[in-house]
Amino acid sequence: MKKTIKIVALTLMAVACVFSVSAAVSPAPQSAYAAVLKQGSKGETVKTLQQKLKNWGYYTGSVDGIYGAKTVAAVKSFQRKNGLTADGIAGAKTLAAMGISSASGSSSSYSSSDVNLLARLIYGEARGESYVGQVAVGAVVMNRIRSSSFPNTMAGVIYQSYAFTAVADGQINLTPDANAKKAAQDAMNGWDPTYGAIYYYNPRTATSQWIFSRQTTVTIGNHVFAK
User: Which CATH number is associated with domain 106-226?
Assistant: First the structure.
C-alpha cells in the first residue's frame, strides 16, 4: 500500500512539473496591438500605414511596406499633429489614432448612403477646416453612434433635432468634395483625432454656457472637441 501511494505521489509530481514547464515556455496571449511598427519593420500593415500617411499628406515616399527613414519622419509629423509622443514608432496609440485596428470599426458595416451622408455633413460643417479637422467632425458622429446617449444609426445621429448646424441651415444638401468623402471613410474606419469626443463647437460663435462646461479633449482648427 505504501509503495502504491509513493508511486501515485511521484506521478502527480511529474505531471505538475510538466505543466509548470509548459506554462513557463508558452507565450503570453498577444493583444490586438502587440505588434509595434518601427524602422526596419516590413509587411502589409506597414503598407497600410504608409498609404494612410500618403493620403493625409504626411508621406511622399513609395508605399513599399518597408518602414524606412521617410516613414519614420512621416509618423513623427502625424504624431506631433495629433498630440502623441513624436518618436516615429507606431505603437498602440499611434495605430489606433490612424484607424489601424480590428475590423469591428470598419466602414464595411455601413452602406454607401451612410458614407455619402457623413461626407455631406463633414462638408457642410467643416469644409474650411484642415483634413484632420474634417475627420474629427466625422469621428464625433461615429462616437455618438457608439454612445448609449445618442441614436445608434448614421441618419439618426445626423438628423437628430438641433444636433448640427449644417442640417438646420440646409448645407447638408451640398455636394461633398473628394476630401470630405475621404474624411468620412477615415472616420468610419476608426481614425479618431478627437480622443473620444461626442461634442464640438466653435468658441467664437457658441452661445450655450452648457457646452463650455464639457471636458475638452483637443482643439483642432476652429473647433473645440469635448466629452
Answer: 1.10.10.2520
